[in-house]
Every structure is written in C-alpha cells, then in structure tokens.
From TrEMBL:
<keyword id="KW-1133">Transmembrane helix</keyword>
<feature type="transmembrane region" description="Helical">
    <location>
        <begin position="171"/>
        <end position="192"/>
    </location>
</feature>
<dbReference type="InterPro" id="IPR051311">
    <property type="entry name" value="DedA_domain"/>
</dbReference>
<dbReference type="GO" id="GO:0005886">
    <property type="term" value="C:plasma membrane"/>
</dbReference>
<keyword id="KW-0472">Membrane</keyword>
<protein>
    <submittedName>
        <fullName>DedA family protein</fullName>
    </submittedName>
</protein>
<feature type="transmembrane region" description="Helical">
    <location>
        <begin position="53"/>
        <end position="78"/>
    </location>
</feature>
<keyword id="KW-0812">Transmembrane</keyword>
Length: 193
C-alpha cells in the first residue's frame, strides 16, 4: 500500500495540481491532519528536483498558515477542538506539562520542535493554548519550518538520485523507518513533556 502511495506521489509531481495538493497537506498537517507533508514532499522532489526549492517554499508558507490555524484552535477552542485532538492522540497529560514549559522555554520549544519528528500541530495548538505571543510564534515558525523544508530540498537537490535509488531498492526498510520516526514523535511528546 505504501509503495503504491509513493509511486502515485511520484506521478503526481508532473501534474499542474501537485503544488496545490502539497500546500493542502502542509497546511492541514500543521493544525489537525496526522500525516506529515514529507509523504508528498520527498517523492515530489525526487520526481522534479528542479522544483525542490519551490516545493520547500510552498511547504513553508502553507505550514506556517496552517500553524496559525492550529494556534487559534489552541487559543480559542482548546476546551472543545484542541482538547479533542490531544485526546485523540492520547497526549492530554503531556499537553499540560508542555503548556507550563512555555513560561520558561517558549522560544526554544517552538524552534526545536519544529525541526523534529514531533508533530508540529501539537506545537501550534499548545502555543495558542499557552497564550504564547502570536508575533513571535509566526516568526519562529517561519524560521523552523523554513529550515526544515529547505534542509529536505538541499538533500534532495544534492543527493536526489542516490536517495531515490536507496528508497527504490530498500522501500520496506525506508517506510518502516519513516513510520517509526512518525510514531516516535508522538511518543517523545508524550513522555518528554
């Protein structure tokens, strides 16, 4: 199933709608959708390395805009939607500790968590829930998400053919590692905060 998704995403890269689909996934992932944009971003960059940097920019802008939605979910709707999302992911206990960490480490929390496999939506919702300064949240989100997606673009533009060969030849292992990193992000959030 994952192999078909990978192949489909490679074929999607040539379509005119590809950047819109990527933007939608990036926006959604920052506020409520559980799947990271890398699922689309990496195959699209592999299929179209000439567009790696524009795909990184699309992901950055859409992710920050989605992050602002996540922030407002946390700020105004935590008791209903925000709490439901944290409960859905089994992270309600970690959310309270994370909220208190903002009093002392808010800038660092956003910078570090935006670069890790810890789902960014948890950072955005908790930033709103904690009442973190919106302006700083946006600036730090641009920095961290931009750095994250530009790093992927740099790797794909420099080592794309080699990475594609590794993925094609070891797809099951690569998929298992990606799933482990995804699940590990949720586990890390739950137990570190």
């Amino acid at each position: 199933m994952l192999r078909r998704l990978y192949d489909w995403t490679l074929s999607l890269a040539g379509r005119p709608s590809a950047p819109y689909a990527l933007a939608l996934v990036s926006f959604s992932e920052s506020s409520f959708f559980p799947v990271p944009p890398d699922i689309m971003l990496v195959p699209m960059m592999l299929a179209r390395p000439d567009k790696a940097w524009s795909y990184a920019l699309i992901c950055t802008v859409a992710s920050v805009l989605g992050g602002i939605l996540g922030y407002f979910i946390g700020l105004g709707l935590y008791d209903s939607i925000g709490a439901w999302l944290f409960q859905l992911y089994g992270l309600t206990e970690g959310a309270e500790t994370f909220r208190h960490a903002y009093a002392e480490y808010g800038h660092w929390v956003i910078l570090l968590k935006g670069l890790t496999p810890i789902p960014y939506k948890l950072v955005t919702i908790t930033s709103g829930f904690a009442g973190y300064h919106l302006g700083w949240f946006i600036v730090l989100s641009i920095l961290t998400r931009g750095a994250r997606f530009c790093l992927v673009a740099l790797l794909m533009s420099k080592f794309g053919p080699r990475i594609k060969s590794i993925i094609d030849n070891n797809f099951n292992l690569v998929a298992a590692l990606a799933i482990a990193a995804f699940i590990g992000g949720f586990v890390a959030f739950r137990y570190l905060f």
